[in-house]
Specification:
It is a single chain. With about 350 residues, this protein is of the alpha/beta class. It has 16 helices and 9 strands. It has a 7-stranded parallel beta sheet. It has a two-stranded antiparallel sheet with strand order 2-3. Strand 8, helix 15 and strand 9 form a beta-alpha-beta unit. Helix 8 crosses helix 9. The protein starts with 6 loop residues before the first helix and ends with a helix.
């Protein structure tokens, strides 16, 4: 891939180079040489090399430095031999980029200076332009030159999860303010989610046009919803996001935590691949999702703190449950925990590859 090639040309070159990868084949439900593996939060806190390069650099600032983003994204690919890289960023990056007063506070998470509670507050949410996140385009250009035939996954937060942060002002266990708006002012709620869908769509398009070979929409908090509420009040906005990038032809992964009751609906929103957390076995998840979708998951992240023998035994259970799937991407059922031994992840990748070699 030439460094002088235009960004659009680089994107096409990268997507062509990765097309036959095990990861993208699995996403397309095609035969694979082995079950592909990547981990949510693989580019991050469990790696000593990550902590070293991040030392003294605030989280959101680190997401705006292309050289640092490139290095952090590549670290787990080098160390673990995973089948895909995931772009190092945070779900609140596009909100920060359009001027929302927020910061990520260590030990707390995203904290919003002026929560959105009224219609007047919607004025905070202007459109996102590629210029707002030019560092993303630059970083992905650097990454795709380094990754070669290894796919890069772009990602964004889903409208419901972003709305919850914006309304609550930070992390929540009850989502009382968000749900109060959803139930009590459904018109304002719908307008907020629609605006966030536009911002999220623009952010994913920037990543795909720069060279991402797949995208994942994280609806981290969707598990707090009953299916009827999800269908009525959340699915339309997520569907708008996933539909907005359908024309690019890259796989779209949709993942949430505690979403066992929502799996079919999350697939209906437009996903090509439905991410499954560790609470539902993959064969049961396939029954709930229905045909025509690949699945991703779903080893419990805490298993990695057990012995190698125990990790292998639980991994075999996941692979056995996935044996009849149309397509399977091996992952954890949630993100890598910060205190995880990186060597356990490396061994897990090798074990899955060995056990599933065809």
């Amino acid at each position: 891939m030439s460094a002088n090639e235009s960004p659009a040309g680089q994107a096409r070159t990268q997507q062509a180079a990765t097309y036959e990868s095990a990861f993208l084949k699995a996403c397309r439900r095609e035969p694979v040489p082995h079950t592909p593996v990547w981990f949510m939060r693989q580019a991050g806190r469990s790696l000593p090399e990550y902590r070293k390069v991040r030392e003294g650099v605030p989280m959101l600032e680190s997401c705006t430095r292309p050289e640092l983003v490139t290095e952090i994204t590549l670290q787990p690919v080098r160390r673990h031999g995973v089948d895909a890289a995931i772009y190092y960023s945070d779900i609140v990056v596009p909100l920060k980029a359009i001027g929302i007063d927020l910061d990520i506070k260590p030990g707390v998470g995203p904290v919003v200076g002026h929560p959105i509670r009224t219609r007047a507050d919607l004025a905070q949410l202007r459109d996102l332009t590629p210029e707002d996140v030019s560092y993303v385009t630059e970083a992905i250009g650097m990454l795709t030159r380094e990754l070669g035939s290894t796919p890069l996954i772009g990602f964004a937060g889903a409208p419901f999860t972003l709305a919850s942060y914006l309304i609550e002002g930070g992390p929540s266990r009850t989502y009382e303010n968000a749900k109060a708006m959803m139930y009590g002012d459904p018109e304002l709620w719908a307008d907020l989610l629609d605006r966030l869908a536009e911002i999220t769509s623009a952010f994913l398009k920037v990543q795909i046009e720069a060279g991402a070979s797949a995208v994942q929409l994280f609806d981290s908090w969707a598990g707090a919803l009953a299916p009827a509420d999800y269908r009525r009040s959340v699915l339309p906005a997520s569907a708008k996001v996933l539909d907005s990038v359908a024309g690019y032809g890259v796989p779209r992964i949709h993942f949430g935590v505690g979403t066992g009751e929502l799996l079919r609906l999350m697939g209906e929103a437009g996903a090509d691949v439905v991410g499954v957390d560790f609470r539902v076995p993959l064969d049961e998840a396939a029954r709930r999702v229905g045909p025509g979708k690949a699945l991703q998951g779903n080893l419990d992240p805490t298993v990695l703190f057990a012995s190698t023998e125990a990790v292998e035994a639980k991994t075999r259970e996941v692979l056995a449950a996935a044996a009849g799937l149309e397509g399977h991407v091996f992952n954890l059922g949630h993100g890598v925990m910060p205190s995880t031994d990186p060597d356990a992840l490396t061994r897990l990748v090798e074990y899955v590859h060995t056990q599933t070699a065809r």
